[in-house]
Each structure stands twice: as C-alpha cells, then as structure tokens.
Write a sequence for this structure.
C-alpha cells in the first residue's frame, strides 16, 4: 500500500503569516498533487509535479507556491496567508493504473 | 477546462435501500474515471475505477456505469448498510498526458439503520 505522509495535521496561523505544509511519499511515484477541500467544492487542484524540480499550475493556484525538492518531498507554501485559505489540504501521489493515494490531510486555520 | 458536476450533494437512505450518485463531465477526451470514498475525519480511499474501454464495473456492493455518449458516470449502491455512510467523490482525467484529475463536489451519503 502506497504511503503518503503529511505534516502538520493541524495548523493555526494569523492573517499575513507564513506557512509551509509538507508531504512525503515513499513509493517512488512521479506525480504528486496538492488539493484543498472545501464544503460544496470537493477537491480543487492547487499545484502538482511530475518530478524533482518540476511544478505544474493547478486550477486554484493564487496565493500558493509549491516546491518539489526530491522525488519524495512536495511542499506547499503560503507566504501571506489569508482567511480564505482556511481549508483542509490533501497531498496525493499517483500510483499504478492512475490511482491516487492520499495523505491524511492538514487542517489549516487562518485567523 | 474539464468541469465535473456531481449530484446529489446529500443523500439519506434506509438500510437495504439502493442509492445512486451521478457525475456529468464536459471534456470528451476524458478517459479515466474514479470513485473515492471518504469516511468522516479520514482521507480519501479509492472505491472503484472504470476506464474508457469498459462501461460497467462491479465490486464491494457497488456498480459503476459509464455512459460516454451522455458524459455521465454513476455509482449505484444496490443494498446500503450503515458502513456505507461516507462522502463519495467522482474524479475524472483526460488521456492527454498531463494527469490532472478533476473532482466532483461530493455526495454525503447517510444510511439509516
């Protein structure tokens, strides 16, 4: 079973704060994704990557940066957090047969 | 880009009843279709998948139907039980090599014993 680990599980910050969400997968998957989940919207794609050093823009990228430092590690950066970015964030990696494997999620609250 | 509409947003059924969740999509190049299940407070787990070469897939008490002509994907639960209570999301991806997955907004299913 593919393993995707996210940290932290919960994060509270203030408006204008700097936040980094971490994701690590240990299955040598090429593709990794960051989604946000909000009631009424399902999961929306923020950024994704197909390998170290690569970044692809998702559907809701404004206010977010991301960096894929290694095959295993994908980070989501909020440099000036706003209350509209309060959400549940999921990282995922793509395994065989196009299946996505999700982490446990990070709940971010921006006050 | 691809748009996916999922209905209904909420569904409540009695144990033993059937339930149907439907997604419609817009991109005719869509090729990969998935249903994910999310139990309360948990992450998403793959429930079922169907690719363009198949129209029906069955398993775990669910049936997935794909109608490419109407661009409609449905998840049919034939006999619901309380363990099926969860949120269900469809996901769609085109066969264009960019591996973007677009999700529906989700259906919160409640099965009443």
């Amino acid at each position: 079973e593919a393993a995707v680990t996210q940290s932290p599980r919960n994060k509270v910050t203030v408006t204008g704060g700097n936040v980094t969400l971490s994701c690590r997968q240990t299955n040598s998957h090429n593709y990794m994704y960051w989604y946000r989940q909000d009631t009424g919207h399902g999961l929306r794609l923020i950024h994704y990557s197909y390998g170290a050093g690569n970044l692809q823009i998702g559907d809701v990228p404004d206010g977010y940066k991301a960096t894929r430092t290694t095959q295993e590690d994908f980070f989501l950066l909020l440099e000036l957090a706003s209350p509209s970015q309060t959400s549940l964030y999921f990282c995922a990696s793509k395994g065989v047969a196009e299946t996505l494997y999700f982490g446990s999620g990070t709940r971010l609250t921006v006050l | 880009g691809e748009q996916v509409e999922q209905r209904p947003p909420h569904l409540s059924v009695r144990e033993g009843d059937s339930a149907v969740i439907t997604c419609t999509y817009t991109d005719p190049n869509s090729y990969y279709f998935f249903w994910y299940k999310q139990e309360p407070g948990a992450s998403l787990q793959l429930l079922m998948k169907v690719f363009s070469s198949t129209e029906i897939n069955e398993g775990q008490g669910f049936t997935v139907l794909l109608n490419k002509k109407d661009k409609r994907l449905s998840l049919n639960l034939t006999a619901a039980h309380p363990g099926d209570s969860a949120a269900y999301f469809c996901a769609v991806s085109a066969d264009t090599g960019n591996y973007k997955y677009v999700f529906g907004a989700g259906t919160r299913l409640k099965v009443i014993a």
User: Anything to note?
Assistant: The two ends of chain A are 37 Å apart (CA to CA). The CA atoms of residues 6 and 23 of chain A lie 5 Å apart. DSSP finds no helices and eleven strands in chain A.
